[in-house]
Specification:
Blueprint: H1 2-12, H2 15-34, H3 60-68, H4 74-89, H5 93-97, E1 104-106, E2 112-117, E3 124-128, H6 131-139, H7 149-162, H8 171-184, H9 189-196, H10 201-208, H11 213-223
Antiparallel strand pairs: 1-2, 2-3
Helix pairs in contact: 1-2, 4-6, 4-7, 4-8, 9-10
Amino acid sequence: VIAEYMSMLKKIFNTPTANGYGQRVKTVLKYGMSKGIVKTNPFMNIHLRKDITHVEFLTEEELARIRDTELFNESLNRMRDLFIFQSSCGLSYCDMAALEPGDYQYNDKGQIYIHKRRAKTGVYFTSVVLPDGIEILKRYDFQLPQISNQKYNAALKFIKDICKIEKPLHTHMARHTVATLLLNSGVDMVIVSKILGHANSRITERVYAKMLPETIFQKVEDVQEQILWY
């Protein structure tokens, strides 16, 4: 029965998502076994492996193309602004949608940052808003447009075509992008983890640590004179 259930899930969802649902059922069944309600473990010969998720992100050139392309449509301009804001701070859609003017704080150097709990997990994040995001906040007087996630993603498909972006464009790609670009710019993994609001840096490393070839070349160039070749 469990094998059939998992087979059905994998027809609907990708493998990591299907295994996640299976893991929840497994947890409930294990609790039932501990109480004597369930006599045997139906997951005995079923292994729920956590496959590595392939994460798409935009390059700096692609992000600049989205930022600078004339869209000639006020609604699309607002959606583009939201995406660029997300790409400048790493917030998820639901955390961005929940922002209020009082959430923006200033440090002693005048940098704007956001420190609050993630809506999804309750984990605190501290995100510094980069210059492109600050420009957008000022444009909307620190009250970003409110739009449903469905309409937002639909608009991003139009923006993708207009800007000739070959990758699938969706709200979460902004988060993927800022995380990857920060890591490849040398920002410490632990810091990026705090910006994203991950429970620990292992999550960040597993999902977002995508080293661009240019970064690999530069890192090797930086240390090659210190290496003794035999």
